[in-house]
Amino acid sequence: MSERSRIDATEVDSVVLSDDGTRLVLLLRDATGQKFALSVPVTCLNTLLRAMPRPAPMGARHALDAWSMDPAENGSGMVLTLRTPEGLAVSFTIKPWQVQGMATVATFGAPHDVPPRSIH
């Protein structure tokens, strides 16, 4: 994306529906005070709303369908992305030691568990 096509709005002046009801028009203002209008089809509003972070209800759990881990842009961490069967995804920037900790817990159980004793 080129810098010229990006608008970093600092406030929303107003939101109006187009005369024919097919578009939502956001009147925005950037840090310099310049005004911009962004017009989006109302048919994409659910897509926009799904992209907004929402707090999960206490105790909510979701099935994990897939995950991926990629290098972070800063080069010093990783990006862990978790995906549900419904297509929801959430990404976290994590440090290598956190990945190692998760692998340790997954391999050997919770940190407070006492490993079973064995006699050879």
Could you state the order of secondary-structure elements as H and E?
Answer: EEEHEEEH
Task: Figure out the total of helices.
Answer: 2
Widest sheet: strand ordering:
1-2-3
Count the domains: 2
Structural class: alpha+beta
In short:
This protein is an alpha+beta fold and 120 residues long. It has helices spanning 45-51, 96-108, and strands spanning 9-17, 23-30, 35-41, 66-71, 78-83, 89-94.
Walk me through this protein's architecture:
- By secondary structure, this protein is an alpha+beta fold.
- It folds into 2 domains: 7-51, no CATH class; 63-110, no CATH class.
- 17% of the residues lie in helices and 35% in strands.
- The chain is built from 2 helices and 6 strands; from the N terminus they run E-E-E-H-E-E-E-H.
- It has helices at 45-51, 96-108; strands spanning 9-17, 23-30, 35-41, 66-71, 78-83, 89-94.
- The strands form 2 sheets. The chain has a 3-stranded antiparallel sheet, with no helix packed on it. It has a 3-stranded antiparallel sheet with strand order 4-5-6.
- It is elongated.
- The termini are far apart.
